[in-house]
Amino acid sequence: MNSGAAGGSTICSEISDNPILMNFAEETGLLVEDSAEARRYNRIKRWLGFADFAIGVVFLIALLVTGWTGTLRDLALRLGFENYPLAVFLYVFMLLLFSKILSFGLEYYGFRLEHHFHLSNQRRLSWAWDELKGWLVGLVLATIVAEVLYFIIRQSPEHWWLIAWGVFLLLFVLFAQIAPVVLFPIFYKFEPLHNDDLKERLTRLGEQAGTRVRGVYKWNLSEKSKKANAALTGLGATRRIILADTLLDNYSPDEIEAVLAHELGHHVHRHILKSIFVQAGITLFGFWATNQVLHWAIDRHGVFETLSDFANLPLLVLVATVLSLILMPALNAYSRYNERQADRYAFKSIATVDPLSLP
Fold it and tell me: Which residues contact 69 (CB under 8 A, 6 or more apart)?
């Protein structure tokens, strides 16, 4: 849910826990050292991310090398009475179920890690319920993607990758628009912000940045986390500012305005539009590369009978994963560049830089 660097800042005394403050320190010559505790937390989080990534890749490779993906496809077809769309759903269901089982241990360790570093208020039952809801939402979204993808492949096997690229761009924009009103409320409670002075102040800041905000909402984050968070979310009629109650309770209006100014910096510099174009190019290349790999697997090695054999789904995901890994350094550098631009806008658009200075 973070739309910018400020989104993940935690309420701690160290400047290094707030990306906006960290960037300000770097650009003004202040030397800031992460605390040993912060370095340890970040190091463990990185290793957890690496481990989760490795498990996912090994799982996909195992499905392809052992032929288990074909076994799951046959099982899905039998359970679905040879109905193709139903079989696709059942296959996706089993794939996500096994994936969740494999990664559950790491996810629970991550839950315990947040408590160990005093960053979470969430109870175990609440966490488990969120995990279940997250899995179900993932199942719905993955099913939609898979059904659309294989429908396109069956209708136009020669040009499927180009058609799918256009359709998926439209789906991306649609999901970005409905997320604030459909997806986010599944996990968190939102209510209109009742602080009229702050609401007017933030709305005015948005107008100065040339964006029309449809509402300012309080995000009840404290029941799960001690972290502070804020975001400018949605597109068009769903565009809104969301402020975590942890941010409202622990930061002054000047500091909240500085955080939002960073988020608005992304809008001023058209980072969302630029990112859509970047992702469009990457996605187009990704679909083309996937088509080449699928034809290689079918025509030269006979791994699958047809393009529409949904047992090849792990191969599609594997190609996308490898491509993401290769492009990650460049995309991270681009993202960091955008964050610095947003920070500079924040420095210029607020009345004083005091909210961004050391406490």
Answer: 63, 311, 312, 313, 314
